[in-house]
Amino acid sequence: MSLARRTLLATPFIAAASRAIGQTADWDKLTEAANRQGHLNLTHNIPPPLGDQWVGEFNKAFPKIAVEATRLGSSELMQRFNTEYSAGASQTDACVTLWDDTLLTWSSNGWIRTWRPPEAAAFDPRYVIRDQLFVTEVIRSSLASSKTKVKESDAPKDWPDFFDPKWKDRIGMDPPWRSVAVQEMLAAWHEQGMRDVAKRLKDNGVRFFNGSAGVVQALIRGDIWVAAVIEPPVISALADGAPVRVTYPASVVPAIGTPMFVPAKSPNPEAGMVFVNWALSAKGQLALQDAVGSPVTRPGIGDPKLVPGIARQKIVLSTELLNPDKQKAIIDEWRQVFGLQ
Hints:
- The chain has 341 residues and is α/β, with parallel strands linked by helices.
- The chain has 2 domains: 3-138 and 257-292, Periplasmic binding protein-like II (D-Maltodextrin-Binding Protein, domain 2), CATH 3.40.190; 139-255 and 313-337, Periplasmic binding protein-like II (D-Maltodextrin-Binding Protein, domain 2, 3-Layer(aba) Sandwich).
- It contains 13 helices and 11 strands.
- Strands 1, 2, 3, 4, 5, 6, 7, 8, 9, 10 and 11 form an 11-stranded mixed β-sheet that branches.
- Helix 3 (50-61) links the parallel strand 1 (39-44) and strand 2 (66-71).
- Helix 1 (3-20) packs antiparallel against helix 2 (24-37), helix 2 (24-37) crosses helix 10 (269-280) and helix 3 (50-61) runs antiparallel to helix 11.
- The chain starts with a helix and ends with a helix.
């Protein structure tokens, strides 16, 4: 059956869901339609085998819906969706990706379905964007240090500690011209009143590495002793028993959301909606947190196994800190200070 034909056949159920998704009868009909479709095309950027573990839990909950999952890097995922939808529709029924402002462009283009999953009622409104983008977890910036090189009492506790002269030539990070997460962290520092950070870090001998994973590997090797870095590679290192520790400053914790959405047109839209609603449920959120180790956004799930959750932290999202002009200003300043014009 053609993509257009399958999408048209789904229209009555989706119309009902869009009108009153919270009504049990409508949701039951939509779930029945998803089971009859029996197939879900999922695109995500969760590293293996973590994404497979999460999808496996969905399979247990909805055994009639076979999942065809495709993992792509964030840039490749964005490019693929943009190419498909420019041609009229998406081959993806549900999509999970790191936050990017491109998502708002797709929203304005009418490429993302507007609806409210029943489980969305449990979430803070900051994690439900335009009733289209539903933030399932957050990836936080953190301070990490080597247990073999730095005593617990000396480990940095808040962002200003990263600039201490005692760490000269022993501090590392991913450069802001390669990472939106670092740009957000720098914007958060600025909001905290920290100025001239590029020059200060250059004077203190900051070292750059290839991506956040490279930063953490340098920390484990002892090439650096302290790092400002996003948490996923730190969590992986902790899971492997590496001698590193992680701190989330009390002043502010910058975080990038991982939203999911259902395209406005796709082969199996009901299946996509069922998946998103499950992913927002307590069981789906717990399964995601157990798989990836980063904290999810639904209240009441509890902390991840290796790091604290977000309930007691001052979380600030990239969407609340960054815009294209601010990102450009950050990158331009750092390139100038480090002579990369």
